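Recap quiz, item 2
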Amino acid sequence: MENFSFYSPTYFVFGKDTESQAGAYVKKFGGTRVLLHYGSNSAEKSGLLDRVKKSLDLENITYVQLGGAQPNPRSGLVYTGIKLCRQEKVDFILAIGGGSAIDSAKAIAIGVPYEGDFWDFYQGKEVVEGIKIGTILTIAAAGSEGSGGSVITKEEGMFKRSAGGDCMRPLFSILNPELTQTLPPYQTASGSADIIAHILERYFTNTKNVEVTDRLCESLLLTMINEVPKVMKDPNDYEARANIMWAGMTAHNNIVGVGRQQDWASHNIEHELSAEYDCAHGAGLAVVFPAWMKYVVDHDVNRFAQIATRVWGCQMDFENPKNTALKGIECLEKFFVSIGMPTNFKELGAKEEDITKMANVACFGDNAVGYVGNFVRLNQEDIENIYRLML
Amino acid sequence: MENFSFYSPTYFVFGKDTESQAGAYVKKFGGTRVLLHYGSNSAEKSGLLDRVKKSLDLENITYVQLGGAQPNPRSGLVYTGIKLCRQEKVDFILAIGGGSAIDSAKAIAIGVPYEGDFWDFYQGKEVVEGIKIGTILTIAAAGSEGSGGSVITKEEGMFKRSAGGDCMRPLFSILNPELTQTLPPYQTASGSADIIAHILERYFTNTKNVEVTDRLCESLLLTMINEVPKVMKDPNDYEARANIMWAGMTAHNNIVGVGRQQDWASHNIEHELSAEYDCAHGAGLAVVFPAWMKYVVDHDVNRFAQIATRVWGCQMDFENPKNTALKGIECLEKFFVSIGMPTNFKELGAKEEDITKMANVACFGDNAVGYVGNFVRLNQEDIENIYRLML
């Protein structure tokens, strides 16, 4: 195990009706003037926004609003939010939504006290301060409610890049699984694929002797495999929604990924797809991950056989472990299909002719380092080959 | 799943040589005048205390010392510590040791600003403030390095009781597995039994549909079963020590126990043993847990069969699930024996004639409520029966 530090100071409030406590938590954590930042109209339509406003009113906390955070959130809205927060002397941002609203809120939060362009942080500049953030989660997916990271797409060039820092961790996150019951099936499934991908990015490692994090990762995968089909069948299954929601947070606050090298090639390969075609990030990952697995399986057949046996319940083929490894990959593919996820470029709306360009941007675009991944370092040619496996 | 809140704001610093950063972390978290609180002589003899002092000197942080925290830490030393902190205007307590030193430090920390008797908090008074705490862990066991709880034994009457609160959570905890390599085998095994017990107390629940926390608990048990025998064989196996240390924290900061009723009967039953005979808490738990399991197995045979199959790899007997349930209990017993843990009263130094008294104190002693446990509520007679199963 490698040396590490782990810090997850977010106060999580989990369960039914918990959004009614939003005002009390903003007050507890010192907010007096709030930006309510959210995405689509659904927060308005469902009445969630009104309930949150009411809870702020009860604590005499004032607020301004900024909606419009979209999937694969954009830099344009971040600039608008920064300007608004400065103008209105906002001291607390309450994000209402999924990873998009939360990541956008984080970008605004670090942009407000910074004199330069907030994009600098997404190009590697160290994050040292930001205004306070809280979240009300409406989809189990990105894990941003418990992480210090944020991914934003810069509209000029459509670069999708990430930033991170301890001050970007939400002070509190309200997780009410009921709020996820009205999601369209495709969004539920995409969110679930994103959670599974967060676990797999940590699972595929070259670090040896990491039994505790291996087992923790496997336990979350087993949870997802058991619970996601339940919500696909019955969107109102509160209990399954709750299990998925806690798994989604746990998968990405890094408690299951400490002390080991992590991969993240598939996320980088996917980012070009969602930047280019604006597809759902999780759906993109459902296409990328099996392809990536097939491309790198020979690097450590036994690790693939381990996940196949422990998670997918495959019988170990001791004469030919690669058979087991490949069966595990097949199980993952079938699982994604069973929950309605796409399997190829066509279903994502992606085009073969863009492969070279996307692989090039993944390797050499804004702030890229010439390769992606750590389990296996992949150059532009490798990435092109992986994209081709998705045709 | 039940509604819950989860808060684990401790900054964990994990790995080799990390104790040399103690001074830097005390400074980062605002400490200027430190109480170094530790237990036996081993921190002094091993040179650990000197290394920590050196790191404080480097940051120009002054300190006073208080050693002598013993297993099953006592109220007497807490009073001494409170007096010393007030006298010396200490603003930060750095505990160096295991659960005993840390729990003692927590009691001192909440006692300093409180005008009354600190024992009030161990009788149910709400904890609202305390001076800051950091820890340097030297044994994987109690999980106090990541929890908001503390257990202290009151010398008058030998009552062993607990207190808890968010301000009792360490601001930082330094976890260096190397520091555990010099532990005697019996202490390593007792600590491991304590970790296993923390998981089992959470596992046995009447709350339904808790797949994610079930799976997380199982993953930690699987880790312990795999790693503990390695350190019993080779005390210097750093990697196994590291896996156990992270499992020990994760088992008790409650991330694997949220949203579900927890049991805690076995801890209460054991507390009377370690209060009465001063045996190692973990060793006591190794004797109590299998007895408790046999006594309550019929309450939910399938839950016992689940742990037997998922954790111990038993074949499910579908005609008679209780056979599987009992096999799982047998596996746990054999595991404890294999790592040198006691199995009965005699090996613990406990006496049959004290059974009635201990069961009475567990039910009706200082701050007790007339029963123990939630999975099955156990009255005095039940507890006596469980003690008798340990003869």
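Residues 151 and 161 of chain B are 6 Å apart (CA to CA).
The two ends of chain B are 38 Å apart (CA to CA).
End of item.
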